[in-house]
From TrEMBL:
Alphabetical keyword list: Lipid-binding
Gene Ontology molecular function, alphabetical: lipid binding
Gene3D superfamilies per UniProt: 3.30.1180.10, 3.40.50.10170
InterPro entries: DegV, DegV_C, DegV_domain_contain
Nucleotide-binding listed as a keyword: no
Pfam families from the UniProt entry: DegV
Protein name (Swiss-Prot/TrEMBL): DegV family protein
Lineage of origin: Bacteria, Bacillati, Mycoplasmatota, Mollicutes, Haloplasmatales
């Protein structure tokens, strides 16, 4: 049997994780002195409320024991496992999961574990996991699925904006110099993940221009592969996410979309407000446009 696993930064509607039996390795979320397991014993609403209250929030990569808990049963059964992780350039999560996976393969010789760097996060990893699960249903073999996933990771797109850059500055994922213009001149930043790293891509003024510019960027990047699933994730701003979904559906009649909330671990670094659009700029050899 082939099993699909993600870390908890992957975003996808909960019912799809359940429907396709996609397992999840939790990152840790720390609020003041209390530690929680992302998407296990903390809700994202608690994270946003804690940010509003000015509490000290941090995250940490998965505990090796939690990784073992998720993987060991399948490894004992001799199953093959594909794990899709947050970008290795944004977190040590990929590295620690890879390390534990190698240790488990030494112990359980009949199991193979393949750790895929999504070169992004959030709905990119979620859509990749969904594609893997759909390909398993269609009887594609492990090597064919790995080829598709590696192709997707090399052509992923994350176009997003956030209301306040202070949280992402604190996380170290955008420099103070890059963020200075956005916060001081009150322009709206549009960010993009390029080669696994977050970069400020454009700056605009006003919410209407912001949304129109985001849609224009998506239109440019998606033109070679318009028939796909597009994830729209928000940081406690469902209204803006739905506006973007409406604009995208008006332009692209064949895309399928979902709107979801960014999870607790990523939400800690993004802060309150903002949205991201997640898709791929090139069609892989096989893609199933199904939600």
């Amino acid at each position: 049997m082939l099993r699909i696993v993600v870390d908890s930064t992957a975003d996808l509607p909960r019912d799809l994780f359940d429907q396709y039996d996609i397992d999840m390795i939790p990152l840790s979320v720390h609020i003041d002195e209390t530690e929680y397991l992302d998407k296990r014993n903390i809700k994202v609403e608690e994270v946003y409320n804690s940010l509003r209250e000015g509490k000290d929030l941090k995250t940490s990569q998965p505990n090796p024991l939690e990784i073992i808990k998720v993987l060991e049963k399948s490894a004992k059964n001799g199953d093959d496992i594909i794990i899709i992780t947050l970008s290795s350039k944004l977190s040590g999560t990929h590295q620690v999961i890879n390390m534990v996976s190698n240790q488990l393969m030494d112990e359980y010789k009949d199991s193979s574990i393949h750790v895929i760097d999504s070169k992004g996060g959030s709905a990119i990893a979620g859509i990749m996991a969904l594609q893997a699960a759909l390909l398993i249903e269609k009887k594609y073999n492990k090597n064919e699925i790995l080829e598709v996933l590696n192709d997707l990771s090399n052509h992923c797109e994350h176009i997003f904006t956030i209301a306040d850059l202070k949280y992402i500055i604190k996380s170290g994922r955008v420099t103070k110099a890059e963020a200075f213009i956005g916060n001081v001149l009150r322009v709206k930043p549009i960010l993009r993940v390029i080669d696994g790293e977050i970069k400020i891509y454009k700056k605009v003024r006003g919410n209407k221009k912001l949304l129109n510019t985001i849609v224009e960027i998506v239109e440019e990047k998606i033109k070679q592969f318009p028939n796909q699933i597009v994830g729209i994730c928000h940081a406690d701003d469902e209204g803006m996410a739905c506006q973007v979904e409406k604009l995208l559906k008006e332009k692209f009649t064949n895309i399928k979309t979902f709107v979801d909330t960014i999870g607790s671990a990523l939400g800690t670094h993004i802060g309150i407000g903002g949205i991201g659009i997640f898709f791929f700029n090139k069609e892989p050899k096989v893609y199933i446009n199904q939600l």
